[in-house]
Amino acid sequence: MYQYTEFDRHFVRQRAAQYRDQLERNLSGQLSDDDFRPLRLQNGWYVQRHAPMLRVAVPYGELSSAQLGVLAKIARDYDQPSQQVYDSAQEKQSLLGTAKLPTGYGHFTTRQNLQFNWIALADSADVMDLLASVDMHGIQTSGNCIRNITSDERAGIAADEIADPRPFAEIMRQWSTLHPEFAFLPRKFKIAISGAREDRAATAWHDVGLHLLRADDGSLGFKVMAGGGMGRTPLIASTLREFLPWNQILNYLEALVRVYNRWGRRDNMYKARIKILVKAEGQRFKDELEAEYQQIITHDGAPHTIPQAELDRVSASFVPPTLTAQHQPTVEAQSSPWSDADQLEYSRWLKQNVAPHQNPELRAVTLSFKRLGYAPGDATATQLDAAAQLAQDYSVGEARVTHDQNLLLPWVHSEQLPALWLAARQLGLARSNIRLLTDMIACPGGDFCGLANARSIPVAQAISERYQDMDELHDLGEIDLHISGCINSCGHHHSGHIGVLGVDKDGREWYQVSLGGSDGSTLSGKPVAGKVVGPSFEAAEVPEVIEALLDTYRRERLSGETLIATLHRVGIDLFKQAANSVRQNAATEAAAP
Amino acid sequence: MSSCTIKLLGAGSADGGSSERVITLANDADPRELKLDGIERIDLQFPKFTDGRAFSQAFLLRRRLGFTGEIRATGDVLIDQLLQMLRCGFDAAVLRADQDPSLAKRQLERYPAFYQGDARTPAPHFGVA
């Protein structure tokens, strides 16, 4: 992990102090709510449906055990609404059908961050101080600025890696932090970077997507894409550069963001993302970008060319750890004989939750935060503490938040897998459903979010309940099910093989279902937005629609064929019919006396 | 940082500068199209403090075009953005009427240095470490 210098540490503390100053001025009436809002947003503080929400930055997903411990403490001590706030929230949600809102937990997001939902604004500066004590913050996790940079959850350990993207992600993080010119862009700006052959970071769906690659002469550089994004206008990023030398990336980004800052639309927030600019201006945008980049090089002297010494300095933080005595394999867990059921469960866990590693002795293990009784990606204070301990005991004190809202342990010795499995199972974090149907992405939706049109969590829950049988789940194979509570697409419904989107009609919750979306991974194929199957469904119909789709898949599939491959081969018409027949059935039932 | 201050002006001074030596630039204009000979002051505009176009204009004027006269921030100018303005090349700001200039100083002195270069200090932190 990146090791903070004294400069970095002091910087984050000063940021916390600056936030406290702003908060105090707001609470004393010297800084109006309207003027405070963009400032608190740039520190990760929203005000949502019931209470403030804090989005903590987890740069490219990396967390230490100590950081997980502090996140657990925040969940336990601060993610606790007053009785009055809670009662009023619960009353509101009960009307929609939510039985009990959870408290005291963190929520992993698709952008590898972590959110809290119940912290009182009056406590917010204390929480920032706590975060700063372990080199954490909420800088630029919201607002119209350059957001937290995401990466491959297997960065630095992936067997198919060309180069480790983390040093570049860190250098870009530092460059973008409190950039004076780019704090008030037309809209938010998200960068994802991958250094492997497989794209595990959905790069084509970002404002900027970067791929590390090597030229024929062995030199390192980036393929640069821009203009991807979800929302109301899903667009796939266009390639701007096939190969940009690695040391030029900051100069190039400066040119790109400057053109966006000057030209991006500000009259309509739905047309303000860079994707609209890239699409509308096309070649003119590219020409302006190249001209600006050339000016930075020739006129400004390319001041942000990354020196080799700086790359070396940052890279030194990312040297693979050596497993010390305390991390040597333990064998105790293997001594007692396992039942056949345990053997089967374990072998499935090895297949789904354990991934190969650059070091043949090590494995990457995903702890599943997709289980009954919890919203996808939710971790209670106790579970965060337990995850910190697992990371400490089995992964040299490091964990990663994944794009799919789980936690990955990157440095697990292969001989410790049985012990880790037993420990994780005891915590309820060893469900062998990674990449399967119930490893779904879902946003907090209408239970928490101020923007949502419909709730996501109950839909996710209903589908999880329906698909508890592990034989069935494994038989269905790898499926991306993505659920968003509104068109802002935080649940990435556009890129799901099956996408579910909450919509509001006459004050009631309805759900649009789409098929065939792709995040750009090998499994899913070329990145593309899914196609809507027809008019929206009632909440209760959604699990039935999923079932109808999956029954169709099981009927149509060739041996070994995944859902997405079947969809590509057969086309979506058969699936559409199956989905829409659910609605007709329901309508008939409702009409029956 | 060479000069760590930004001249703060009261709301009344917004009109100042009668002569042809002062230009007011709309925030969607391209500063590179200006004729800067003889110009002493350029007023840039913040219709809302969250509209950040003038930051890029100031950067281009200062760094790219080498403008050495005054760059003045006008409009929705709040003390919380002064540091950004200073770093992008502004050297004067007309505060919005309700702003308290006595609270501005500590906003400018909080950070000893920054990661990235800017219009005043072109070298990034890694370039000086």
Question: What key attributes describe this structure?
Answer:
heterodimer; A: 593 residues; alpha+beta; Sulfite Reductase Hemoprotein, domain 2; Sulfite Reductase Hemoprotein, domain 1; Alpha-Beta Plaits; 4 domains; 6-stranded mixed β-sheet; 5-stranded antiparallel β-sheet; 19 helices; 38% helix; disordered C terminus; B: 129 residues; alpha/beta; Rossmann fold; 5-stranded parallel β-sheet; 4 helices; 22% helix
Output the CATH class name of the largest domain in chain A.
Answer: Alpha Beta
Number of separate strands of chain B: 5
How many DSSP helices of chain B?
Answer: 4
Q: Any idea what the shape of chain B is?
A: globular
- The count of domains of chain B is 1
Biggest β-sheet description of chain A: 6 strands, mixed
CATH architecture annotation of the largest domain in chain A? 2-Layer Sandwich
Detail the poorly predicted runs of chain A: 589-593
Task: Describe, in plain words, how this protein is organized in 3D.
Chain A has helices at 6-27, 33-41, 65-77, 83-96, 124-132, 166-176, 249-263, 274-281, 283-298, 308-315, 332-335, 340-353, 381-394, 417-426, 457-466, 470-476, 542-556, 563-570, 573-591; strands at residues 45-47, 52-56, 62-64, 105-108, 114-116, 150-151, 191-194, 208-214, 220-226, 238-245, 354-355, 362-367, 378-380, 398-401, 407-413, 441-442, 481-484, 498-505, 508-515, 531-532, 537-538. By secondary structure, chain A is α+β, with helices and mostly antiparallel strands. Chain A has four domains: 6-132, Sulfite Reductase Hemoprotein, domain 2 (Alpha-Beta Complex), CATH 3.90.480; 150-315, Sulfite Reductase Hemoprotein, domain 1 (2-Layer Sandwich); 346-426, Alpha-Beta Plaits; 441-591, Sulfite Reductase Hemoprotein, domain 1. In chain A, strands 16, 17, 18, 19, 20 and 21 form a six-stranded mixed β-sheet that branches. In chain A, strands 1-2-5-4-13 form a five-stranded antiparallel β-sheet. In chain A, helix 3 (65-77) runs antiparallel to helix 13 (381-394), helix 7 packs across helix 9 (283-298) and helix 17 (542-556) packs across helix 19. The longest helix of chain A has 22 residues, at 6-27. Residues 589-593 of chain A have low confidence and may be disordered. Chain B has 129 residues and is an alpha/beta fold. The radius of gyration of chain B is 14 Å and the shape is globular. The chains are: A alpha+beta (593), B alpha/beta (129). Chain A binds chain B through residues 7, 10-11, 14, 17-18, 21-22, 25, 30-31, 35, 38-39, 144, 171, 174-185, 250, 258, 261-262, 266, 295, 299-301, 303-304, 306-307, 310, 313, and chain B through 30, 49-53, 55-57, 59, 63-64, 78, 80, 83-85, 87-88, 100, 103, 106-107, 110-118, 122-127, 129.
